[in-house]
Amino acid sequence: ATRLDPYDLYDIRSQLSDEERMVQDTVARFTDERVLPVIGEYFDKGEFPHELIAEMAELGLLGSYFPEQYGCAGMNAVSYGLICQELERGDSGMRSFVSVQTSLCMYPIFAYGSEEQRQRWLPVMARGAVIGCFGLTEPHGGSDPANMKTRARREGGDWIIDGAKMWITNGGLAHVAIVWAQTDDGIQGFLVERGTQGFETRDIHRKMSLRASVTSALFFDGVRVPDANRLPGVKGLKGPLGCLTQARYGITWGPIGAAIACFHEAVEYTRERILFDRPVAANQAVQLKLADMARRITTAQLLSLHLGRMKDAGTLHPTQVSLAKWNNVRMALDIAREARELLGAAGITTEHSPIRHALNLESVITYEGTETVHQLVVGREITGINAF
Ligand code: TGC
Ligand code: FAD
């Protein structure tokens, strides 16, 4: 029998269209040639590789699934997933950048913005000329965004925003922040441009996770924005939660890439390292671990592909996204830790990827809804009882 691809045991690639395969190959090449040679160093320095933004834009990776009339590539949901997977095979920070720009910033403008807002922002954001950030989480607790303290009050034709947001990806880089604030009419979204008086950002340092990504706090002290900067199409928590469904869908794919990177290193390393006169991979105890990694990666791949087909068919339910976010991030975090262990001492430096991925995935399992939040969403669906 022919040998299977160890990183795609179910030949899931055969289920992709030619266009989807082309997207995957293009992003894979970008990761191999542009990200992998430098990312360990960026992680060590605690910096985001800014110079790659223009290249990602050139490849159509920013806002990939919005229509061409807004300067975007008009790709489907499965292609967006493959972009996330191949970027996160490089580093979760690269995928985070694209998740935030695409699903948390361009999506609300596309879905809830006016036609003028779409025309003004989407093409420049697709080009990477304008970077966005998404401010939902507040310092007192991110899991319960309904308890929002940031407020926007009407003053004539303007709005005055007061409050703070915490742990905001791209905050310090962003030209524009999508800020969710409580109003007399429920939660609403506002576009706040850098340089607006009373709006400050401060980057968060000493992170041991997502070091190659900018994470910041946002402060709003009497920030005045015109009503034209309010997203008119949505009111209530379903606005930001609707964006999260888009981003979380991509996050079901991303960690598959991180897991494949770790699995790959574990296989190579244990095949080559000779101990007790035989390759480490010749031991049953080691093969059990590698086989188990392959099992979990394959299951995650099938979940995400099925989810993507449902998203393209328009039948996706947010609870289905929660189940896959939970499963796939947990899968990747466990595999990264196990791969680190199989590399022995070599696994503790960023010369190899598993510890970097494991540290990054500690954020991924917390952001976009902690693992517990997603478990409780699934539990509520099953029982009909809200346990939050
Ligand atoms: P509930 O009050 O029942 O619902 C409010 C309204 O929202 C609707 N809805 C959703 N819509 C779309 N997608 C979803 N996932 C939705 N979940 C709920 C719902 O139908 C309702 O609509 P309506 O019309 O009836 O008003 O809210 P809930 O009880 O479902 O929410 C509770 C809970 C805990 C699930 C929710 O608050 C939650 O998800 N908390 C976690 C918050 C979170 O994930 N924050 C992430 C911040 S952004 C981030 O982390 C970016 S990291 C990016 C990166 O670097 O990659
Ligand atoms: P908390 O909500 O305080 O939770 C603390 C603990 O309590 C968790 O273990 C949680 O699971 C548990 N818990 C909470 N409620 C319950 C319950 N009912 N039952 C049992 N356990 C419970 N946010 C943004 O808005 N935009 C961003 O761009 C963004 N980027 C981020 C980037 C990074 C690197 C990180 C780490 C976070 C980012 N976040 C962002 C914030 C992220 O969404 C929050 O960290 C997350 O929602 C959890 O909120 P919290 O950290 O305040 O934890």
From TrEMBL:
One of its GO terms (biological process) is fatty-acyl-CoA biosynthetic process. Pfam families: Acyl-CoA_dh_1, Acyl-CoA_dh_M, Acyl-CoA_dh_N. PANTHER family: GLUTARYL-COA DEHYDROGENASE, MITOCHONDRIAL (PTHR42807:SF1). This is Acyl-CoA dehydrogenase. Belongs to the acyl-CoA dehydrogenase family. Residues 17-128 form the Acyl-CoA dehydrogenase/oxidase N-terminal domain. One of its GO terms (molecular function) is fatty-acyl-CoA binding. It comes from Metallibacterium scheffleri. Residues 133-223 form the Acyl-CoA oxidase/dehydrogenase middle domain.
